[in-house]
Protein: Sulfotransferase
Amino acid sequence: MELIQDTSRLPLEYMKGVPLIKYFAEALGPLQSFQAQPDDLLISTYPKSGTTWVSQILDMIYQGGDLEKCNRAPIYIRVPFLEANDPGDPSGMEILKDTPAPRLIKSHLPLALLPQTLLDQKVKVVYVARNPKDVAVSYYHFHRMEKTHPEPGTWDSFLEKFMAGEVSYGSWYQHVQEWWELSHTHPVLYLFYEDMKENPKREIRKILEFVGRSLPEETVDLMVQHTSFKEMKKNPMANYTTVPQEFMDHSISPFMRKGGCRPARGFGAGGSSGWSLPIGTRGLPWDETPALLPAFLLQE
Structure:
């Protein structure tokens, strides 16, 4: 990666009503010429919802559990980030042009900004949703260390922006809802981060079935171990420590911070009343604590 001029902390730009960091907004024009292939697989999440985790799992599946092949390059090269467009680096589209089929593609784009070709080609999608409390906390710390994003300010002010959809990629609520609705008409495997934490082997088997692949039991066990948070946090091919400090300052907060469930219980206690709306979740992975959930997640 080349060293570049200071590009940090620029304001968000709005595209079709969705806020994005400047460089990703600038990628949307060129993305209109992107051509999906029928055997592509899209990994879609709202940010900080397990994207890197499921990317590592899927790459390991595609490599037949071969650890050496999984360490051939950083995760952002093995699973190109569709809308990535950081100055001085190849864009996501450029990396994808050199990626052999079948390709794994990562994106956080909401449906309004997603290239239509991915839907027209009926590209399979693995979507992961995560408790919004945990997303907000993780996204706050990500903003602190990732310098192409605006300064997050205080936790309380960031939480207000998050709940209003005034952070990059917009509303968590709209994102998880529209992808859920799409799953009724498009090949989408809709996973929950909390289910992956509770029983990763079970969820890996779901992914294997969805992509039409099978692996020996011992290989699946190896995948569970190799894609654990503990292992990925210390793996430079997965933890983003190969990204220059000009973009990500891991001394402020590591890219892979805790990887837990519901750490927001005690975060900002007494000062953040934004989580005070008690909405039951009827057995969903988030039912132990009140959460601000869209109505579709409350339906049985």
DSSP finds 13 helices and six strands in the chain. Confidence is low (pLDDT under 50) at residues 1-5, 263-300. The radius of gyration is 18 Å. The chain has one domain: 13-260.
